[in-house]
Amino acid sequence: MSEEQNSAGKDADGLNERHNARMARKKEVVDKKIDAAKRNAGVLVITCGNGKGKSSSAFGMAARALGHGMKVGVVQFIKGAIATGEENFFRRFPDEISFHVMGEGYTWETQNRERDVEKAEIAWQRAKELLSDPAIGMVVLDELNIALKYKYLDVQRVIADLQARPTMQHVIVTGRGAPPELIAVANTVTEMQPVKHAFADGIAAQQGVEW
Amino acid sequence: MSEEQNSAGKDADGLNERHNARMARKKEVVDKKIDAAKRNAGVLVITCGNGKGKSSSAFGMAARALGHGMKVGVVQFIKGAIATGEENFFRRFPDEISFHVMGEGYTWETQNRERDVEKAEIAWQRAKELLSDPAIGMVVLDELNIALKYKYLDVQRVIADLQARPTMQHVIVTGRGAPPELIAVANTVTEMQPVKHAFADGIAAQQGVEW
């Protein structure tokens, strides 16, 4: 073996050793955090922000929950003008997931505030039924944040109903403009920040990706 | 009707009118953007950042794609030590989605860099098969970013293989630490920013929500 190869071999050994040592320290930190968080409870998760991934993340969690044998309920507050992939797909399993599409498209499509308020109220009644049923392990309230942002629904009333839900039930709330009062009572909140979007490349909303 | 009620009624009318006018302007802006973006193409989507929702967003898009009758392929690069809800669920549809779990848990669990590199290479071979198959409409490469971050795989080789894929195939890449070279060639990139997490409330990772 040449000296160069030998030195390269030593470098690789060094890289592996340093990596393994760093991972050992990381494992300690992660294990400690996991040890500290032991309580099981239904969580309120909010996905907000202007980036892509808010609703799709909620539907990914719905798929996870179904994979663990949990029952899931979905209310879509704003979407509904076009049939979406998530609706097509999850409607295949009516015994496991109840899927309610209550909106009539985005609010800038309807151009009618009074009708939007009425629709939001009907959607919330459906949500309340799901939030009262301990057999449902996860409730997805898709685009609820938008209904709150435009004050179609009163945020304090929504929070009261959310907090009265069964203790082990998870709720996922999605949409831009999550009100601070709701963020304050949530357990997990992620803001989806757009770094770039295919729109800018002149690419239309793609089936399977955006809807 | 008292003067007060009358004035409240006028206020409500004003609110509705202003809202409808604002929504009309918004519709114009949104419609223009949609008109400008007309091309159909397979997109490369990256979900990164430290917040919750990266993998779940990818699995939500997988559900959407299945709902449109597309075929989906999934390679999980890092996870795999425990059976996840997404794996349980999507394995129900072997004719529609091929699900490959290649990792052996997180890298700080394995504590062995050489084995991680070998596993990543095997996973990439599986990914390449999916990326060569025009019958597959969407490929999810879950936690690929972590394999790139730790240089288990060469980023330039990965980019070359991604760019050689069928033109209409969508790819979703997830994980913390997306390399800038990959972000540069992606169409849509979202950074999931943690605002708060249930861990801080002492709540353990919840079935259906985190796994």
UniProtKB/TrEMBL annotation, chains A, B:
Catalysis: reaction(s): 2 cob(II)yrinate a,c diamide + reduced [electron-transfer flavoprotein] + 2 ATP = 2 adenosylcob(III)yrinate a,c-diamide + 2 triphosphate + oxidized [electron-transfer flavoprotein] + 3 H(+); 2 cob(II)alamin + reduced [electron-transfer flavoprotein] + 2 ATP = 2 adenosylcob(III)alamin + 2 triphosphate + oxidized [electron-transfer flavoprotein] + 3 H(+)
Region of interest called Disordered, as start-end residue ranges on this chain: 1-27
Any Pfam family hit: Co_AT_N
Any single biological process term in GO: cobalamin biosynthetic process
Keyword ATP-binding annotated: yes
GO cellular component, one term: cytoplasm
Location within or outside the cell: Cytoplasm
Pathway: Cofactor biosynthesis; adenosylcobalamin biosynthesis; adenosylcobalamin from cob(II)yrinate a,c-diamide: step 2/7
Domain Cob(I)alamin adenosyltransferase N-terminal: 13-34
Primary subcellular site in the record, as a coarse category: cytoplasm
Biased composition (Basic and acidic residues): 10-27
Keywords linked to the UniProt accession: ATP-binding, Cobalamin biosynthesis, Cytoplasm, Nucleotide-binding, Porphyrin biosynthesis, Transferase
InterPro entries from the UniProt entry: CblAdoTrfase_CobA, Co_AT_N_dom, P-loop_NTPase
EC number: 2.5.1.17
GO molecular function: ATP binding; corrinoid adenosyltransferase activity
Function: Required for both de novo synthesis of the corrin ring for the assimilation of exogenous corrinoids. Participates in the adenosylation of a variety of incomplete and complete corrinoids.
Family in the record: Belongs to the Cob(I)alamin adenosyltransferase family.
Protein name (database record): Corrinoid adenosyltransferase
The species this protein was found in: Herminiimonas arsenicoxydans
Lineage: Bacteria, Pseudomonadati, Pseudomonadota, Betaproteobacteria, Burkholderiales
